[in-house]
Design a protein that fits this description.
Organism: Streptomyces antimycoticus
CATH topology: TIM Barrel
Strand order of the largest sheet: 3-2-1-8-7-6-5-4
Structural class: alpha/beta
Mean pLDDT: 94
Shape: globular
Pfam families: DHDPS (PF00701)
CATH superfamily: Aldolase class I
Protein name: Dihydrodipicolinate synthase family protein
EC number: 4.1.3.3, 4.2.1.41, 4.3.3.7
Family: Belongs to the DapA family.
CATH architecture: Alpha-Beta Barrel
Length: 306
């Protein structure tokens, strides 16, 4: 894969939080061949890497064997220069460290780590958690999602984690775009990654050097183009970026909603890709929510965005 301007570390650029296809059988078994094909498809359409075993990949519903195999399949399917940065979230720090070790052994070059998410951890517990994950020896990207974990990786706490050498970047999913500037002030060497699709332009202009993305699963070419236009590090072009962002934003907003997995998979189906079923407790969308996803996806596809 040719070197892309602005992509200089394994966590830089557009890393797709990949959806995971399942077979239509009684167990909704993982379609590993379909997943490998999707990884190759994303590489062919301009993305820089994938993040398997995120929430979009429904990691919480996978067995340990399935979860480990998903990482191996991603690494094996990735062409040269295409990154694999697995999610290593778990209830316990020891378990997260073991998943980071598994990622290292499979050939991944970085991992994405939530803070403890089984309870509202205090500062000491959060720091201890990241110390344990860092023991695996791979660069650690912290994932700040206070909505789901109830733990907020504030700029002050991120500065402590980075100052101790435990993290190299943060996937910022708080929704508060103002934080980008305080993070940069407190931790000048900590890389900012866009964590939610619907704040891509705002965080891109604030200096983000990567995007852990949802909607490139369905429309990779247009979303990668938007990232390149919006990211200040590779030459932001607002005149082109803003109308594209406005056109895609109705879809990008689904990435921050409860139904994001079903919505993105439904959009993939409409785009002729393999979205398909979700495992319980998620079920197919129905009613007005499903109609909105279909309507908004068809509008975007009808405008020629792929």
């Amino acid at each position: 894969m040719p070197e892309i301007p602005g992509v200089s570390a394994p966590w830089h650029g557009v890393h797709v939080a990949t959806a995971l296809p399942f077979h239509d059988d009684d167990e909704l078994s993982v379609d590993y061949e379909g997943y490998a094909a999707h990884v190759r498809f994303l590489a062919e359409h301009g993305c820089d890497g994938v993040c398997p075993n995120g929430s979009l990949g429904e990691y919480q519903t996978l067995t340990d064997e399935e979860r480990a195999r998903v990482v191996r399949v991603a690494v094996e399917a990735a062409p040269e220069g295409f990154g694999v940065m697995p999610g290593v979230a778990a209830y316990g720090a020891l378990e997260s460290r073991r998943w980071a070790e598994q990622a290292r052994e499979a050939g991944a070059r970085a991992v994405l780590a939530l803070p403890p998410n089984s309870y509202r951890a205090d500062r000491e517990a959060v720091v201890g958690h990241y110390r344990e994950v860092a023991r695996a020896g791979l660069p650690v990207v912290a994932y700040n999602n206070p909505h789901d974990t109830k733990v907020d990786l504030t700029p002050e706490l991120l500065a402590e984690l980075h100052g101790e050498g435990l993290i190299v970047a943060v996937k910022e999913f708080s929704g508060d775009v103002r934080r980008a500037y305080e993070i940069a002030e407190r931790s000048p060497g900590l890389d900012l990654l866009v964590g939610a699709d619907d704040v891509l332009l705002e965080l891109g202009l604030a200096g983000a050097v990567g995007w852990i993305a949802g909607y490139p699963n369905a429309i990779p070419e247009s979303t990668v183009e938007l990232y390149r236009l919006a990211t200040s590090g590779v030459g932001a072009d607002l005149e082109k970026a803003l109308p594209l962002y406005r056109a895609l934003h109705p879809l990008l907003r689904w990435d921050s909603r409860t139904e994001f997995v079903q919505a993105i998979k439904a959009s993939m189906d409409l785009a002729g890709l393999r979205g398909g079923f979700c495992r319980p407790p998620r079920s197919r969308l129905s009613g007005e929510v499903a109609a909105r996803v279909v309507r908004e996806t068809e509008t975007v596809l009808g405008l020629g965005y792929r």
